[in-house]
Amino acid sequence: MTLVGGIEAGGTKFVCAVGTGPHDLRERVRIPTATPAETLARCVDYFRNQRERVGAIGIACFGPIDLRPTSPTFGYITSTPKPGWQNVDIRGTMARELGVPVGFDTDVNAAALSEMRWGAGRGRENLLYVTVGTGIGGGVIANGSPVHGLIHPELGHIPVRHDLETDPFPGICPSHGDCLEGLASGPAMHKRWGVAGHELPADHKAWALEAEYLALGVATWIYTLSPERVILGGGVMEQAHMHALIRKRVRELLNRYLDAPQVRDAVDTYIVPPALGGEAGVLGAIVLALNSLS
Amino acid sequence: MTLVGGIEAGGTKFVCAVGTGPHDLRERVRIPTATPAETLARCVDYFRNQRERVGAIGIACFGPIDLRPTSPTFGYITSTPKPGWQNVDIRGTMARELGVPVGFDTDVNAAALSEMRWGAGRGRENLLYVTVGTGIGGGVIANGSPVHGLIHPELGHIPVRHDLETDPFPGICPSHGDCLEGLASGPAMHKRWGVAGHELPADHKAWALEAEYLALGVATWIYTLSPERVILGGGVMEQAHMHALIRKRVRELLNRYLDAPQVRDAVDTYIVPPALGGEAGVLGAIVLALNSLS
User: Fold this and answer.
1) How distant is the Cα of B228 from the closest Cα of chain A, in angstroms?
2) What φ, ψ does residue A55 adopt, rounded to 5°?
């Protein structure tokens, strides 16, 4: 298999690696996200200095990004709130500097692709990958390929049921207030309870409320996308009890209407944690690179 | 183009036709939905009695149905509440009796396919088609093909925000109570207001509430599916003012977060009525038949 390079491009750091898959992932480096010029120059240097030349690059990118190949700003980071990073031609820069094919997608679509290829989504062609952390975002695979469509899914920003009597917290999303991300991201938990989620004991009522919101999201996405498997990751989902709480509540919310044995009898293998853990991102970039060759 | 046959299989009637597309749709008949044996026998007779033999059949079917080609009940109507129609091998029966390829999908996926091929979704590969009438259902095209996944999308059953102070109506969905369909289908309107929707004047407060629920659904689906166009049809959407109310409210709910000119500047051409009207269903069956040949 051709050696390729991957860049997991995030708002705080870029992770670069070369390799061919999870059992052959080499030379990882972390580059702090500084100005676009400085950050991308360090990525270019990293790949140029590899002993073995890579045949392609993949970029799993924070967003929003432009994924329409016919668009004049294809491959750009577009309207991100991250200072200095609006309208940055990240894909074009890497393609010009390195002279190899460049695969490009959202960080979450890329993570979904890596879980489909090597992780918790193997053998599935319709997959949902959601990460609950600083924000709530998700990658969607439908009919075997990542969904882009109009822009790309923004799963965290769906409106959800919000009972102001039991939870008067107004939410923290700058655009929507109490959308799912506004109510249930890591920073939303921190703001509501005054401490970070990982400092709250497992029996704190915060977790039942958190599971309620995430279960509403998961039930909504299941009815809308009909995924063959739901992968829930991110910092908030590292709490050991969260998967069980969410599975139980999703089954209650679906209430047998969705008559699939995967949900009815085997929800433990239907809603699952990621198999690739923290490496799903950079491995997603490796998949994008491999896909750009075929 | 090969002459093919289409069956729009509904809970109250089956519509059969032969043709090749919207400008060549011949010999339509309506067959009341009686027992499976009687209904399917009449469909078989209809196609056998055509002067010209059809090269394939498409069935756009009410559900839930089994769409997994590897399943032992592939092509069956499965757990429908319609008496007598559980576990009916509709696809297999037509294939055996007529000896031609049979395309098979949900009625709403088929309608989405016909709108993509000949109607309001031309040129799009990611499309949402929703019908609001006796129920609320939708077809989803992603990456150029209908989404099946676990079963198929059940868009009407998503949980939605329900403010019991402004709308104490508990909803009528037997499984979920106040899911979107439970709150906003035609029968839900009828139950809440005591008269059918089409009897309510255009300035009745029912319509603002109806638009609110449907806009919550549309915003949720846009964030989840990222469709390039949203087609809203069905009896409830025939009220002339509903499209304008929903477009306005969807834009407010998205609140510029989704930075796409299609939504920001041209929502009138982004959220649209079907172009094929009442023929989308049987034309969808024709598309399924044509697709089964290629």
Assistant:
1) 5
2) -85, -15
What is the pTM assigned to this prediction?
A: 0.96
Q: A202 — contact with chain B (CB < 8 Å)?
A: no
Q: Please name the member of A143, A153, A224 whose beta carbon is closest to the beta carbon of B153.
A: A224
| Å between A22 CA and nearest CA of chain B | 26
Q: What is the residue-level pLDDT of chain B in tens, covering all 294 positions? A: 899 999 999 999 999 999 999 999 998 999 999 999 999 999 999 999 999 999 999 999 998 899 999 999 999 999 888 899 999 999 999 999 999 999 999 999 999 999 999 999 999 999 999 999 999 999 999 999 999 999 999 999 999 999 999 999 999 999 999 999 999 999 999 999 999 999 999 999 999 999 999 999 999 999 999 999 999 999 999 988 999 999 999 999 998 888 788 888 899 999 999 999 888 899 999 999 999 998
The neighbour count for residue B235, using CB atoms within 10 Å, is 15
Residue B218, both tokens: 């549309």
In chain A, what residues touch B157 (CB-CB under 8 Å)?
A: 223, 257-258
- Kindly state the tokens that stand for A192: 């509501």
In this complex, is the C-beta atom of A72 within 8 Å of any C-beta atom belonging to chain B? no
Other Cβ atoms less than 10 A from the Cβ of A265: the count is: 10
